[in-house]
Design a protein that fits this description.
heterodimer; A: 413 residues; alpha/beta; FAD/NAD(P)-binding domain; 5-stranded parallel sheet; 7 helices; 20% helix; globular; B: 114 residues; alpha+beta; CPE0013-like fold; 2 domains; 3-stranded antiparallel sheet; 19% helix
Chain lengths: 413, 114
């Protein structure tokens, strides 16, 4: 029996382990499928990490090292090269690696910190053949930054998520020509600073409201046809443009990796793709917690670390016999709100609710309703799907309510 | 003359307006912090960026590196050529200087390799 098993040794897993250790938990085990700790940060060699947590600008590997150093100093056990195959609802973990074969660990508490993966081409329905030369942006990032291979010379990028923008710059620096970044939506999903420093700095065109409609080439990619899309996001006939290229990168969204959460019978939120959690990041299975990108995709690793600290502390409190849930208040999504984390509140204490909106809006009010009673309202200059919003709820607001609706009121023009 | 910039100092990405004449910055507005003002001024005179890349070590492993301070943006491609010629010997720790004085900055390791 192990007190606390953490699945995933990326920024979320390490941060959760350190927080639980700080609360007095000593019997901790981190399971990591890669050959080193750090997760996706290892291949994110660009800078811009850690401004919130450390007040300085770090690269991905440096941010990871800040945590790994502490994990090592405290001798928190880690099993690397270890793949978790299954979690049962009794918190029995089945995993495999080359030394131990297939083995089982019974845990008193589990923290899920498996991160996310990229949405693949198959999810996009692009017509055409299946030649070599089409990569997810993260795969190209791994090939260039970890293996030292340049996957192509003439590049088109579909999707303006941050990884796509970062790769536009990275491939340009390594000698490739990036012809265009196409974005289906009329706005970019990436950070404004990345549009500036990754595209504008290199005069790479960002084609908003554009998508790839056809892929050309049999053995190797020879080109793509792009087209403008209308308000219904469908291609507009007559706007097609052919771009010769040997490489297409896809940066079209991230999906929390929750296969093993499903086998444990954990309730998932269909919008986030992650577990349904309470204010302590506890899932619907008692003693199983979730944090980081496996719970919902974050904008910044700094926020992942914060959330993981909360999950680590909560798991420690659970192991030390904290009291059972005192209430059950569900958080519902109102106008323009896509999802909230947490989705349920089980204790009356101050809670920060994170949420994402469905579309870009200027001059709005963030509102909290209980049935037809407006409990809270706050003005906001703008909201965008690419930026997670935080809303601090006081304990008082949770009195005498069974459900709260978070909603965006659009101010009259 | 007026120029609009997106600040790249932090993820806020403030929209900064700069009024300048003959290479001299007269007024900066829209920034939320003093670092934004400094950024706007250098961006209109000598744009500076921290360069990150990777180098292949002796033995074949790839090491991630960065300039330890921003260098002029226009020198990036020249700096890349210098970085790509280098093949350091192992072991290497985070912060080790790999190449000295590349356009005013040192190229330092951002990763440990044993």
């Amino acid at each position: 029996m192990t007190d606390l098993v953490i699945i995933g040794g990326g920024p979320a897993g390490m941060s959760a382990a350190l927080a639980a250790y700080e609360q007095g938990i000593r019997d901790i085990l981190i399971l990591e499928r890669d050959s080193s700790l750090g997760g996706i940060l290892q291949q994110c060699i660009h800078n811009g990490f850690g401004l919130h947590k450390f007040g300085e600008e770090l690269t991905g590997p440096e941010y990871a090292w800040r945590y790994e150093e502490k994990v090592r100093a405290l001798n928190i056990p880690c099993k690397l090269n270890t793949m978790v195959l299954d979690i049962s609802d009794q918190k029995v973990i089945t995993a495999t690696n080359r030394e131990d074969g297939i083995f089982q660990i019974r845990a008193r508490a589990i923290i899920l910190a498996m991160g996310c993966r990229e949405r693949p081409r198959g999810a996009l329905n692009i017509a055409g053949a299946r030649p070599a030369g089409i990569f997810s942006a993260g795969t190209a990032q791994k090939l260039i930054n970890m293996e030292g291979y340049l996957p192509g010379k003439e590049v088109v990028i579909l999707g303006s998520g941050d990884i796509g923008l970062i790769m536009a710059r990275r491939m340009t620096l390594e000698g490739a020509k990036v012809h265009a970044v196409c974005e289906l939506m009329p706005y970019s999903g990436g950070l404004a600073r990345n549009i500036q420093q990754c595209l504008h700095d290199f005069e790479i065109p960002l084609k908003l409201s554009h998508t790839v409609v056809e892929i050309h080439g049999r053995e190797r990619l020879e080109g793509v046809t792009i087209a403008k899309v209308g308000g219904d996001r469908r291609p507009i006939p007559g706007t097609e443009e052919h771009i010769p290229c040997d490489t297409l990168l896809l940066s079209v969204g991230l999906i929390p990796e929750n296969e093993i959460s499903k086998s444990a019978g954990i309730d998932l939120d269909p919008i986030t793709g992650g577990a349904v959690v309470d204010q302590d990041r506890q899932t619907s299975c008692q003693g199983i917690f979730a944090c980081g990108n496996v719970l919902h995709v974050h904008d910044l690793v700094d926020y992942v670390s914060d959330e993981a600290e909360l999950a680590g502390k909560s798991a420690a409190a659970y192991l030390q016999g904290a009291s059972a849930p005192a209430c059950s208040i569900s958080l519902k999504t109102g106008n323009l709100v896509r999802y909230t984390v947490p989705q349920v509140i089980t204790e009356k204490k101050p809670v920060t609710v994170y949420f994402r909106v469905a579309d870009v809006r200027r001059k709005v009010q963030v509102q909290v309703w209980s049935k037809d009673r407006l409990l809270y309202s706050k003005k906001k200059a703008s909201v965008a799907p690419g930026e997670m919003e935080a809303l601090a709820l006081s304990a008082e607001i949770l009195d005498d309510v069974t459900a709260l609706t978070i909603s965006i009121k659009e101010e009259q023009a | 003359m007026n120029r609009e910039l997106t600040c790249i100092i932090c993820p806020l990405g403030c929209n900064i307006k700069v009024r300048h004449e003959n290479g001299a910055v007269l007024e900066v507005s829209g920034n939320t912090c003093p670092r934004g003002k400094t950024y706007a001024i250098t961006e209109c005179t000598t744009p500076m960026r921290t360069l990150t890349s990777s180098v292949r070590c002796k033995g074949g492993k790839l090491l991630s590196v960065k300039t330890d301070r921003p260098i002029p943006k226009e020198k990036w491609m020249e700096a890349m050529a210098i970085v790509n010629r280098q093949h350091p010997a192992l072991p290497i720790a985070v912060g080790d200087v790999i190449i000295e004085d590349v356009f005013g900055a040192n190229i330092v390791a951002t990763k440990n390799i044993d």
